[in-house]
């Protein structure tokens, strides 16, 4: 099939690669069994997002039901955990509005997208190394700097990275999604203080790190306390960053500081077990193959 623009539509495997690379929510639907007359054969696949479909399982009401089930899983509207695997059965007759009369099982694999957002403030030497090192990780990175033209040209091509000119620090913080991990390392101490104040005031930041010395944090801690932040809130700030990995005890090059900072941050992004990684019970997957005759 050729589109109106003269190009072939994106295949399911091309779409899957792109969506996985970009950390975007999507579902992969695979026909695993068929009995009787069915539009497609086992192994047929399609990729489904909130607003698009790539490839086909044969069309008609059956395919619409698959799409509807996948999208319900994507937004968590089917009383099951968001993400993960489910095995769905579809009868291609009667209630489905199709006359094939067959029966299929479809495995729906839901990928909720990047589970972690890293909000990085500062496009200096350490910030640049942090962005480079974080590139292979499945995180959405929002890189902010108040200076125009601060971001390197290569950043525009890095997946899951959004570069944002942010002359208003408070507005940049307000635009973050809940549960983001913040790292503050701008070129200006006053801007750092404004950012930490705004991030703490949100109350929903997953973690917060600040670059600087112990004396810098002592000064900030005193001023933030006078601004109304209590001791429990202030204790959530990690400063200097990278201390858990010994990052400030030796090599203080930008690369070393960035490496130690990421080593410190990694366990903070993986402290909750994800139900979507537990898979299907073997009995659930075995049943369709034991009870369905493939024709």
TrEMBL record:
Pfam families noted in UniProt: XdhC_C (PF13478), XdhC_CoxI (PF02625)
Domain named XdhC Rossmann: residues: 118-265
Gene3D superfamilies: NAD(P)-binding Rossmann-like Domain
Domain XdhC- CoxI: 20-74
Name of the protein: Xanthine dehydrogenase accessory protein XdhC
Gene that produces this protein: xdhC
């Amino acid at each position: 099939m050729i589109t109106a623009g003269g190009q072939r539509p994106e295949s399911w495997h091309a779409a899957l690669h792109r969506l996985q690379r970009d950390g975007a929510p999507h579902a992969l639907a695979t026909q695993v069994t068929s009995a009787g007359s069915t539009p497609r054969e086992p192994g047929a696949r399609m990729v489904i997002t909130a607003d698009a479909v790539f490839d086909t399982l044969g069309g008609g009401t059956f395919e619409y039901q698959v799409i509807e089930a996948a999208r319900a899983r994507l937004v968590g509207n089917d009383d099951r955990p968001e993400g993960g695997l489910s095995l769905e059965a579809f009868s291609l007759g009667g209630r489905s509005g199709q006359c094939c009369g067959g029966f299929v099982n479809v495995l729906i694999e839901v990928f909720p997208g990047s589970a972690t957002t890293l909000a990085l403030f500062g496009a200096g030497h350490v910030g640049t190394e942090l962005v480079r090192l974080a590139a292979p990780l499945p995180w959405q990175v929002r890189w902010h700097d108040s200076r125009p033209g601060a971001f390197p040209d290569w950043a525009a091509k890095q997946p899951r990275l959004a570069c944002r000119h942010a002359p208003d620090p408070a507005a940049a913080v307000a635009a973050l999604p809940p549960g983001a991990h913040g790292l503050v390392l701008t070129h200006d101490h006053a801007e750092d203080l404004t950012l930490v104040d705004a991030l703490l005031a949100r109350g929903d930041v997953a973690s917060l790190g600040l670059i600087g010395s112990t004396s810098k944090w002592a000064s900030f801690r005193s001023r933030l306390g006078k601004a109304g932040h209590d001791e429990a809130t202030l204790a959530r700030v990690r400063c200097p960053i990278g201390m858990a990995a010994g990052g400030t005890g030796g090599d203080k090059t930008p690369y070393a500081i960035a490496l130690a900072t990421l080593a410190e941050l990694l366990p903070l992004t993986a402290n909750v077990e994800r139900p979507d990684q537990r898979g299907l019970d073997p009995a659930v997957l075995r049943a369709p193959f034991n009870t369905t005759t493939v024709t």
